[in-house]
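Review this fold:
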Amino acid sequence: MSEGTDRLPSVQLPLSKSYTYASPIPQSLVDSNEPCMLGVDEAGRGPCLGPMVYAVCYYPASRHEEFKTLGFDDSKKLTEERRVDLSKIIQQNLDWVGWAVHVISPQDISSNMFSRPPYNLNEMAHNATMQLIRDVLNAKINLTEIFVDPVGPSKSYKEKLSRYFPGIEITVEPHADALYASVSAASICAKVTRDQVLQYWIWLEPELEDKVSKEFGSGYPSDPNTVRWLDKNEVPFFGFPSLIRFSWKTISHRMENTLDVQWSEDEDEEDTKPKNPRKRKPQETPTPNKDIKKNQHHMNGRTYKQLYLETVNTL
């Protein structure tokens, strides 16, 4: 793919914080108040690296059959080239089709899941979905039907969405991306956005550019290319760059297995000395010379030698 012509405007790099991108609102839909249908889907929920992307796509209900003929299907069944072609078709029809994505950065995923209490993936997914729908409604689009590929049990999710968006017909159905064209289109927007974020990835750690490979694979722990990248680029103790979701068990287990802490020499010496709390030496009156000699063993440690400051006796 050539970056200039095929890169979606939803791809914003470098990625340090979560963000939302929305295509221009079709003014004809606002002016006519025509009933519209909207689909919701995601990409990148399972991988251990990169963002998770939620997307919506909407269009007039009166043009549903026309929209279906454009060729939308579940993005996971399509080749990368076909997905990009379909994203171009959406971009070419922005006079009557709208779309938006919420890109959740790997840093935010990690910090949310490590927070107390944890802010888990299901909550992030629900909130991203509801905010995207709310943004479309706030833009004066007359949504009458919403189709969603569920996160968690379908019944409770539908009840939750119905409470937030009363008066709108809501369908929550597993594999909706293979059943409804609006969800398939949302799936395309989410998948191509995530794929291109990784394809054009810019390190937040500038020193890694041109030094660390960006052949991440899919990001799924079962992908041999991803496993190979993780094996090659893990740094002992520090782990991985900010591309990684540190809250994933795949990652935390790896880091636990490779963690190697070296203590300074003076601390090692103190730990090996036998301790007898019953014996106490009589207290001595502290003097400057005695205090210096007493603490000189710290000067033998590697940490002290690297970091010590020289004493200044005169100003």
